[in-house]
UniProtKB/TrEMBL annotation, chain A:
Pfam family, one: ABC_tran
Gene3D superfamilies xrefs: P-loop containing nucleotide triphosphate hydrolases
PROSITE patterns membership: ABC_TRANSPORTER_2
Top-level taxon: Bacteria
SMART domains in the cross-refs: AAA
ABC transporter domain location: 4-229
Protein name according to UniProt: ABC transporter ATP-binding protein
GO molecular function: ATP binding; ATP hydrolysis activity
Protein keywords: ATP-binding, Nucleotide-binding, Transport
UniProt KW Ribonucleoprotein keyword: no
UniProtKB/TrEMBL annotation, chain B:
Signal peptide (from-to): none
Chain ranges of the HTH gntR-type domain: 12-80
The protein, known as: GntR family transcriptional regulator
Pfam (any one): GntR
UniProt keywords, alphabetically: DNA-binding, Transcription, Transcription regulation
Record-linked Gene3D superfamilies: Winged helix-like DNA-binding domain superfamily/Winged helix DNA-binding domain (1.10.10.10)
The keyword Cytoplasm appears for this protein: no
Single GO term (MF): DNA binding
UniProt xrefs under InterPro entries: Tscrpt_reg_HTH_GntR, WH-like_DNA-bd_sf, WH_DNA-bd_sf
Length: 292, 130
């Protein structure tokens, strides 16, 4: 089962492509991290996935259907927009009533249990909650809808470290309990490192790399050694830097690295993401001496 | 019941850290046959990690014959690692100490000793695999 498939997907605002040539094929059951700098196109991709935007080019299907194609599709996908919006003037109980009215699959018991565990009284106004509590309320509403896919746009960006941790704990608990697929974005990979098992790196409106975290970590290596301008054809260069005598590559390869001249080290997920972010500026500045 | 923790600076993947913590607890006798491991939900709610990470760790432990999953109930310890090898630790440690003393006499500082140990350890491990 595929949770999200995009083919040559693009979205244009005026003359600017916010997302371009996006190809994705994400299996269900993953917690998918969408990482990239601010303005890279993360929110655009998420809005396309939940049906709030229509593509300018290409196709997108979510859980096998066109996003926003009808009430049944809307019920299967939950969306927590940026800054975890709630209605400041409404009480938590009002939010639950709204949730029950708007969502056919609403699980009121789940919502109430969760809020009780968090110590959030139903009569409190959303406007009086702390940022962390408001985020937890928005998450509760998203989970109680009982979606098959929950999409969250930068849910922890505005939270302090403790609230961030508590939010991700709640999200992972829900993912474990409900067999939920999750797509969440962040401009910081460190926020997502422990929670996601599938990663998409988006830079300058384009997908730089996407795949299962474990596979990405197993196929990317840092090579350090004597100056070298060419690498074997099966080693895709992600980034390269040279001094007069030394070369430093980050490469992607399925095969083993036989050349004994290299010191091969593993990459952390953060290094891997940074290498791809760097690539977008690096390729233009770097002389084309490295064979791809 | 054991409580898991994660060290971000260890360089080990979270899944491997969980596996090692169970093995370690078994070796030290902190976990015994019949003990229950925390449920997947409990672990992810505590550590804020991906549920698949915990599932993978538990599957690996199951594959090693150390634990068994009882559907709908939980995962239980089925073996122990606190065996005869504990007795060998003392003499091995003594030998290692003598080796360390020799290394220092030869002029190696701590970093050099660690580097020498780790490269030898790794190349020996690789030879074993090959």
């Amino acid at each position: 089962m595929t949770v999200l498939r995009a083919q040559a997907l693009g979205k244009k605002y005026g003359s600017h492509w916010a997302l371009k040539d996006c190809d994705l094929d994400i299996p269900a059951g993953h917690v998918v991290g969408l990482v990239g700098p601010n303005g890279a196109g993360k929110t655009t991709l998420m809005n396309l996935a939940v049906g709030q935007l229509r593509p300018t080019a290409g196709d997108i299907t979510v859980l096998g259907n066109k996003p926003g194609s009808g009430p049944a599709q809307l019920a299967r996908v939950g969306y927590v927009a940026q800054d975890t919006p709630t209605y400041a003037g409404l009480s938590i109980a009002d939010h639950l009533r709204l949730g029950a009215r708007l969502n056919p699959g609403w699980d009121d018991a789940l919502a109430r249990n969760r809020l009780e565990q968090l110590g959030l009284g139903l009569d409190r106004k959303a406007g009086k909650l702390s940022g962390g509590q408001r985020a937890q309320l928005a998450l509760t509403l998203g989970i109680a809808k009982r979606p098959e896919l929950l999409v969250l746009d930068e849910p922890v960006a505005a939270l302090d470290p403790l609230a961030r941790r508590e939010f991700l704990q709640g999200l992972m608990e829900a993912a474990a309990e409900q067999e939920l697929s999750v797509l969440l974005s962040s401009h910081l990979v460190s926020d997502l490192e422990r929670v996601c098992d599938y990663l998409i790196v988006l830079v300058d409106s384009r997908v730089r790399v996407a795949g299962e975290v474990e596979e990405l970590l197993a196929t990317h290596h840092r090579l350090t050694g004597p100056r070298r301008d060419r690498l074997p054809a099966d080693q895709q260069v992600v980034s390269a830097s040279h001094t007069e005598r030394q070369s430093n590559f980050i490469i992607r390869t399925e095969g083993p690295i036989h050349d004994p001249a290299w010191t091969v080290t593993k990459l952390s997920l953060e290094d891997l993401v940074l290498a791809y972010m760097d690539e977008s500026t690096g390729t233009r500045l770097r002389p084309l001496e490295v064979q791809r | 019941m054991i409580e898991f923790h994660l060290d971000e600076r260890s360089g080990l993947s979270p899944y491997l850290q969980l596996v090692r913590q169970v093995r370690q607890a078994l070796r030290l006798g902190l976990l015994r046959e019949g003990d229950q491991l925390p449920t997947v939900k409990e672990v992810v709610a505590r550590l804020a990690i991906n549920p698949n990470t915990v599932l993978k760790a538990y599957r690996e432990l199951e594959h090693e014959g150390l634990v068994a999953a009882r559907p709908g109930v939980g995962t239980f310890v089925t073996a122990t690692l606190a065996d005869a090898s504990l007795a060998a630790h003392g003499p091995l440690r003594q030998e290692l100490r003598r080796w360390l003393a020799k290394a220092r006499l030869a002029g190696l500082d701590e970093e050099s000793i660690e580097a020498l140990f780790m490269t030898t350890f790794r190349s020996a491990a690789e030879e074993d695999i090959a």
